[in-house]
Amino acid sequence: MSTLKLAWKNLTNKPLTMLLSLVLFALGVGMISLIFLIEKQVQDKFDKNLADISLVIGSKGSPLQTVLCNMYHVDDPTGNVAIKDVKPFLNPKHPLIEKAVPLSLGDSYKGFRIVGTTLEYPELYNVKIGSGKLWGKNLEATIGADVARIAELQIGSTFYSTHGFLNDGMNGHDHGQFTVVGIFEKSNSVIDQLILSTTQSIWEVHNHAEGTPQEEHSEEEHNHDDHEGHDNEEGHDHSDHEGHEGHDHGSHEGHNHSQEEGLPQQASAPQMDFSNQALLQSPEEEITSLLIKFKESNRKSFQALNMLKGINENTEVMASSPAIELNKLYDNMSLGESFLRNLAMIIVFVSGLSIFISLFNSLRDRKYELALMRVMGASPTKLFFLIIVEGLLLAVIGYIIGIALSHVGMSIFGGQMQDKYHYSFTASQFLIEEFYLLGGALFIGFLAAVIPAIQAFRTDISQTLSES
Amino acid sequence: MRLYCNAVFQNRSKKQINLVGFGKPIYKLTFTMLQTKNLKFSYDGKNFIDFPDINCQKGEEWLLLGQSGSGKTTLLHLLGGLRKPKHGEVIIDGKDITSLSSTSLDAFRGQKIGIVFQKPYFVRALTVEENLLLAQQLAGVDEDINHIIYLLNKLNVGHKLKSKTDNLSEGEKQRVAIARALVNRPAVILADEPTSALDDKNCQEVIELLEKQAKEANATLLIVTHDGRLKDLVKNQIQLAAL
Prior knowledge:
Chain A is built from 18 helices and twelve strands. Chain A has helices spanning 3-13, 15-48, 63-72, 87-90, 120-124, 145-150, 199-207, 215-228, 235-240, 245-259, 263-268, 276-280, 302-314, 322-365, 367-375, 380-421, 432-457, 461-466; strands at residues 55-59, 81-82, 97-109, 112-117, 129-132, 140-143, 158-163, 172-184, 194-198, 286-287, 289-294, 317-320. In chain B, α5 (170-182) packs parallel to α6 (200-216).
């Protein structure tokens, strides 16, 4: 019978005496592992979706919110910017900018955000078309793989967008029916959870409100319009002024009449040019943000570094650097993480102490056994290792239960994140840190067992057996 | 104070092995299996217990009698190599065990000496079978389940092979303890008050079993006891008396 088997039998003979130690140990290990898993996967998601985007240009507001909303689609938009305010960045001859991708947010379908943008947007993430094609005209949509799967959309499916980001079945647009023309391959990027179409489609959906019968609202809407000005068009307005869903469309109506840009005609009459140049023809229209990718050679140049400051000090729009904002976010997260991690460490320490006490007590009950084993020919070293192995075995069992707990926890957390943000997290990813954690667990097991093991080593056979 | 132990040897007889040649015994051979010389022990370094020299031949049965406090158990522990004497030699199968290193002594004890304790101890997490296998394994002897089953059957506890030791009666425990003492075919079996917890019937049975098994294994049996019931059962006797 090997030492391992004997240690196992000793532990399982009276499982209750070790249960508390084991549960504590598993909890501690599980917490540490879960923190690793969440931290790693959240950062992976953030980093993967960085896509070399240097700046996000949007309306004045919280830079972190701008980044979260426009790059990660987890927060509400801060507001809109007029095309004319971002005109310089849309100029293809801009010396620093390689790509400027406009985003128009505000509508959704079954909780998935509809993004009005250009064909350069999926290029940022190197996403390939899985089936069908990219959108070619207004109200055509190419959708992410998760959208297709969860919202059960196929090529040829049609849907109406919902105002805002909530999947509450209210606030539906009954105009501007989108048609799915393509589905992206799963890329694990943010594209998986988006519905992409032209910027002009978003405008068109909202401009069409003009022709819909909403008379009963119009009076109120126009009044509202008077003191709210022309800040309108996008879903964020809805979130700012709850209960006035119709308001945006109504206000837009007024807005368009007053501007006489002839844009509704342009947008509603499908045209093939949806490039940035086409946007420049509607300087008063609005978009939510502009994602800026600098030219490779300019990414670290002096001008590029100064551009952020220059924009924020001299223009009506705001530029945010995703790298800076994410670092701030990580800093904030790490505070909470380190607190939780320290708490978990304390739990592991207490469980180590508990293993020590349990082993110590069990040795008191088993001192005759140990003396007997010495009589039967076991050397003191053998007894020492037997107790050490018992401690290590407890640690390994606790570790396995803890890792199982953390992955179950991860799958619950992942499910919640999926429901809320449509980001998918996996419980089946194992990290190298978890392997290091095994080393730590074994160390604690060893520490807890070493004093009882020395005691076993020193068993005085004759004295113990004479005590009876 | 100095303690003197008087030894009273009764019916001291040497086992005779008759070698047969030309139809009649020509040699009387004896083989000393267990021997002590000038054995002294002290717990505190001041008060010494002197033990009488013992000389037991291969296959003999001996009874070591003495009242409580006469140093019986101490002597048994010295003979079993569980304690080192302050002075003197313990020679088992030709080897002075007091001169062995700790590791060699552990191995020697496991292989050559079977000990039956007053209270039958076991590794409680294990079954009867596993306890006996452990005894073989710790002594560095090949595992031999057939021998284990044979011994348990001989001791009428064969059906308890798979039982946890906690589930045995006192009598059964003592039998299993005897089986464990015999499992490595030791040269010497030391029994410390093996019958003190048993009723008359079990007492007699256990002694008979011990004798029988020792005889079968051709092992030297030394029973340490204050149990008067055994006086008539074993003929070779040493009396320890504390003065």
